[in-house]
Amino acid sequence: MSPTSSTDELTAMITAARAAGIILREYFETPLGEEQKMDRSFVTRADKESEAAIIATLARAFPDYGVLGEESGEHIGSGDDRFVIDPLDGTANFMNAIPIFAVSIAHMKGARVMNAVVSNPITDTIFSASRGRGAFVNDAPMRVSDDTKKNVVVTFGKSSKREDGERVNTLFVATQKDGFRVRYLGSAALELAYLARGGTDGYFNVGTHLWDYAAGTLLVEEAGGSITDFSGKPWGAEERYFVASNGKIHDTLVKNLSIV
Q1: Exposed, middle or buried, 131 (CB in 10 Å: 0-12/13-18/19+)?
Q2: CA-based torsion, 243, 143, 111, 185: positive or negative
Q3: 207, 202, 139, 162: which is closest to 128 by C-alpha?
Q4: On the CB side of 229, how many CA atoms lie within 13 Å of its CA?
Q5: What does the angle CA 92 – CA 160 – CA 97 come to, to the nearest 5 degrees?
Q6: What is the 3 state secondary structure string of 79-110?
Q7: CA-closest candidate to residue 204, choices 227, 178, 237, 235
Q8: Phi-psi group of 124: left, alpha or beta (phi > 0 → left; psi -120 to 50 → alpha; rest → beta)
Q9: What's the chain's average pLDDT?
Q10: What is the DSSP letter of 45?
Q11: Contact 212, 104 (CB under 8 A)
Q12: Cα distances (Å, whole numbers) of residue 86 to 26, 227, 230, 242
């Protein structure tokens, strides 16, 4: 078991993510009832049941903690600890039987992410981290890449706002002019996890929600990566516009942000 599993919160979060993963696998590639939300994103029965399973698991272990869930909203706890939950990050992929989606759970104390779990239910992969204790993929330590040019891959996460989509389109072109490969995978949580693992090298977050990225950002930080706001200044968790990288290409990525 990884050293990060020594925290009670992380142990409960991994258990919750696995329970949610079972639900998502059962619904994957089946007909789903769906609803369109105010921001034009979709929610399915799978989202709702996954979040209910996560909350039930975490509430048994930490009944006094607050919860911010994508589907159920915010429930205030008795202190400054809360769990931030995305029960199905990548719903559009999930609905179209594309196996790129995740369960994302972050434990925050005030404005800082303290523990993080991102789970890929299809590959049965658990990415985890605790602040100051490193990042892990399953039981193996993980680190960001050392790539600077030849094999660099940069991914993008965006909100449903039209202007954020236009920003991503502009960044797509600019990033390719730097000689980097670009991808849009449709799951911010997984994209940050892949960056932390060294599979990709950079990531632009253009307006996604806290529950999409909270866990993933701690993975990147604990794996040795860099995160700043769009101007290259220190980043805080409530800032929805940021760039994350392996550190080696960070200045190049920030440079392109001047045009958006």
Answers
A1: middle
A2: positive
A3: 139
A4: 9
A5: 5
A6: CCEEEEEEEEECHHHHHCCCCCCEEEEEEEEC
A7: 227
A8: left
A9: 92
A10: H
A11: yes
A12: 18, 21, 24, 19
| Distance separating alpha carbons of residues 166 and 220, to the nearest angstrom | 26
Confidence label for 245 from pLDDT (cuts 50, 70 and 90): very high
Q: Can you tell me the distance from the alpha carbon of 198 to that of 246, in angstroms, rounded to the nearest whole number?
A: 8
Tokens of residue 250, six digits: 């960070």
Q: What is the pLDDT of residues 172-207, one digit of tens each?
A: 999 999 999 999 999 999 999 999 999 999 999 999
Amino acid at 7: T
Alpha-carbon span 182 to 192, nearest angstrom: 14
How far apart, in whole angstroms, are the C-alpha atoms of residue 173 and residue 246? 20
For residue 34, give the amino acid letter: E
| Owner of token pair 């236009």 | 166
Main-chain dihedrals φ then ψ at residue 68, nearest 5 degrees:
-120, 110
Q: Could you tell me the two tokens for 114?
A: 């303290």
CA distance 208 to 252: 22
In angstroms, rounded to a whole number, what is the distance separating the alpha carbons of residues 209 and 70? 9
> Structure tokens of 108?
């925050």
